[in-house]
Every structure is written in structure tokens, then in C-alpha cells.
């Protein structure tokens, strides 16, 4: 089960979620229109975006599961470590003691494993060109 409690996510000055409370039970299917925030919720669970409030997976706050640390640097080489999400996941499993099997199982439960794990990572110039 994933519980979002008083979840607030914002980008710049725009609030995407403001004190959202939501429970997603195992084997649930979450649907909604484009732009409704499904991907944002997944990114928050995976620790890819900052948030306020709590995200609990099976009752455990995800920040506390494995010594949660944010990665921030101005060294460009860090952002070219991997070409696909699976490369970055492998790096995180080494440097942050990420539970690789748990991460893979979450993606499989959400039915997005193949879509996410093999996604190509664009650098800043590539992303701007698209």
C-alpha cells in the first residue's frame, strides 16, 4: 500500500499538489487524464522530486527506508553517468544502498517497469531541443 499524507509538491511557485491525502492499495489501477499528476506521484515515491508531507510504503516513510539523501551537484559528469534509467538505478544501488529488487517490484506492480527502466535519459541540451 502507498499512502500519501498531506503531500505538497510544487515546481517554482506552482503547487502541483497541496496537502493531498490518498491511499493506493496493492493491485490497484490508477487512471486519470493527462496532466492529472500520476507521474508526479510516482516520481515522488521513487525519490526523484522533493515534496513535503509523508509518503508511506507499507507503513514506512520512504525517506527513512534507506538513509534518504538528495543528490545535488554542479559537476556535469555526474549527469552523464548513465544513458538509461537502469544505469542510474544501478549507480544508486551502489552509492545509496538502494534496494534494487524492491524498486523493480514497485515498478512492476505499477505496470511501468519496461517503460521506466529502459527509458533513455536526455542531457540538458537534448531535452531543450525536443
Automatic annotation (TrEMBL):
It comes from the Archaea. Residues 20-94 form the ABC transporter domain. It holds the Pfam family ABC_tran. One of its GO terms (molecular function) is ATP hydrolysis activity. InterPro entries: ABC_transporter-like_ATP-bd, P-loop_NTPase. PANTHER family: ABC TRANSPORTER ATP-BINDING PROTEIN MA_4021-RELATED. This is ABC transporter domain-containing protein. It comes from Sulfurisphaera javensis.
